[in-house]
Amino acid sequence: MAFSQILGQDKAQRLLTRARASGRLAHAYLFTGPAGVGKKTLAKDFATSLLCQYPKTDGSSCGTCSSCMQMRSGSHPDFLKIAPDGQHIKINQIREMKEALVYPPLEGSLRVVFMHDVQTMRREAANSLLKILEEPPARNLLLLTGENEAGILDTIRSRCQIIPLHALPLGLCTELVARHRPHLSSVDCHTLSELSYGCPGQALQMEAEALLPLYNELIENILALAKPMGRRVENALILAERLGKDKEMLAHIFHLLRLLYKNILAYALSGKDEYLPQGYHNLAREHWNQEQLSAKLKAIGMAEVALARNCTPSLTLEVLLLQLMDCLDPHPMQA
Asked: What is the pLDDT of residues 269-298, one digit of tens each?
């Protein structure tokens, strides 16, 4: 089984390799872990190896048989994929799957059902799936993935072999991002790894959504301490109005801000942080002490609380950015 695209998930790979080699497969596997760590890729690689007509001696897929080519093109008749319809996996999807499982596989001895994001299932759909797991049809294997294991019914988890995947160390995540985005600098690759908490898939998605330019813009404005007070106030208000219009981006914005001040604080304490952009090190260190930086981090948390209480996004961001740009008292707002 080739896991060339998956790094840092040795335990999960060992579990699957052992199962494949022994020939004693569970009837259902549940791949768990945060978004972007490789659950779907690993599950599909496993399915490809199981459906391969001429597997290698180590159990990996040959990559050249008709089954492997069908998997690559997404047209294998014995590979059934189920994804959320909108925001949820719905009961009619489970019912259609149950009808399909009544019939034997079309080409080989096994059919693989690949169902991802099972944490999105509504309760009636989950209960319907449970009946399949309790009495699994012969010659069918279910591969499930879920980001939030706590959101999956215990009865479903208990009937699956759990394959746990975890966020990667930042160094390894940075290496993977650099491999897929060779045009990025090492600082940018590390920043994306931090933003994604070590989940390379998320990091690449963030790069595609242009979060790095947003991060750099926040740095430029927040650390422009040499500018006159009036100019800083104006920049804070303009930036708050623009950022407050996109509610879906607010979580990313707070994460960006927290990352920025974490790096500034790390440099202020040790002088060793290399991920604060060059040219800002002395500026940040000379203007803020540890207490002030801690207050700014607390202010970010209080702003998140304010938004959770349905405060106006643009107004909340105005107050926060004015604080971060030293236009207001550095102690955090009261939500």
From this structure: 776 655 565 555 566 666 778 888 889 899
Distance CA 236, CA 323 (A): 9
Q: Can you tell me whether residue 81 is helix, strand or coil?
A: strand
Cβ pair 39, 31 in contact under 8 A: yes
Give 200-241 as a DSSP string.
Answer: HHHHHHHHHTTHHHHHHHHHHHHT-TTS-HHHHHHHHHHHHH
| Spatial separation of the C-alpha atoms in residues 189 and 156, rounded to whole Å | 37
Nearest residue to 229 (alpha-carbon basis) of 121, 316, 154, 322: 322
Among residues 26, 29, 63, 28, the alpha carbon closest in space to that of 48 is found at 63
Express each pLDDT in 108-162 by its tens digit: 899 999 999 999 998 899 999 998 898 888 999 999 999 877 678 888 999 999 9
> Which amino acid makes up residue 310?
N
The candidate with the shortest Cα–Cα distance to 35, out of 259, 204, 171, 172, is 204
Amino acid identity of 21?
A
The encoded tokens of residue 313 equal 């996004």
| Distance separating alpha carbons of residues 47 and 110, to the nearest angstrom | 10
Residues in contact with 205: Cβ distance below 8 Å, sequence separation at least 6, in sequence order: 36
Taking the C-alpha atoms of residue 279 and residue 214, their distance in angstroms, rounded to an integer, is 18
Residues 78 and 112 sit within 8 Å (Cβ to Cβ): yes
Alpha-carbon span 206 to 191, nearest angstrom: 11
Joined tokens for residue 167: 């966020």
